[in-house]
């Protein structure tokens, strides 16, 4: 595995627990380096690093479901200074009324960006997080390895040594 990107803080400020890691379960192919963090619906979700909101979706109910709901999830997608993007999926329906972020909004590391939910292809409430390669606007790209620090320093994204 390539050296993981550094500079990301915990999107739940340490809450929740890892319910699915990299290269396991549904995390294959494009999403192989994604993580699922089990957490109650309505828990605050924070930006893992500073950047600009490039897309968001907030219209699907928190009733989970099978593969038929694979593209019916609420999310926020942030592009960082180096072009990498972080995505936060299965957000709670209605998060946009509570957090006034739109496409083009700038966020700081550790800033509230939404609330966890159970939208889309999901068997239980959780937050799916991933960091993606730079790519074309509007297209989810392949995930890359990344590490999460306990503290939110707002530092630059970088590759780890080694």
From TrEMBL:
Q: Which residues form the M23ase beta-sheet core domain?
A: 35-134
What are the recorded GO MF terms, alphabetically? Answer: metalloendopeptidase activity
State its Enzyme Commission number(s).
3.4.24.75
Identify the InterPro entries for this entry.
Answer: Cell_wall_metabolism_enzyme, Dup_hybrid_motif, M23ase_b-sheet_dom
Q: Which UniProt keywords apply?
A: Hydrolase
* Database matches in Pfam families: Peptidase_M23
State whether keyword Hydrolase applies: yes
Q: Does the keyword Endoplasmic reticulum apply?
A: no
- Protein name (Swiss-Prot/TrEMBL): Lysostaphin
Species source reads Acaryochloris thomasi RCC1774
Q: Corresponding gene?
A: lss_1
């Amino acid at each position: 595995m390539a050296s993981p990107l550094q500079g990301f803080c915990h999107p739940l400020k340490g809450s929740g627990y890892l319910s699915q890691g990299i290269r396991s379960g549904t995390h294959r192919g494009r999403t192989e380096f994604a993580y699922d963090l089990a957490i109650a619906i309505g828990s605050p979700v924070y930006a893992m690093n500073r950047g600009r909101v490039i897309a968001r979706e907030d219209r699907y109910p928190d009733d989970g479901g099978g593969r038929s709901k694979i593209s019916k999830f609420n999310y926020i997608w942030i592009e960082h200074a180096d072009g990498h993007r972080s995505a936060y999926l299965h957000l709670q329906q209605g998060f946009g009324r509570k957090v006034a972020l739109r496409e083009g909004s700038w966020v700081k590391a550790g800033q509230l960006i939404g609330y966890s939910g159970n939208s889309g292809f999901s068997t239980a409430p959780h937050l799916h997080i991933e960091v993606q390669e730079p790519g074309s606007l509007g297209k989810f790209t392949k995930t890359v390895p990344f590490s999460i620090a306990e503290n939110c320093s707002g530092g630059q994204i970088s590759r780890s040594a080694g």
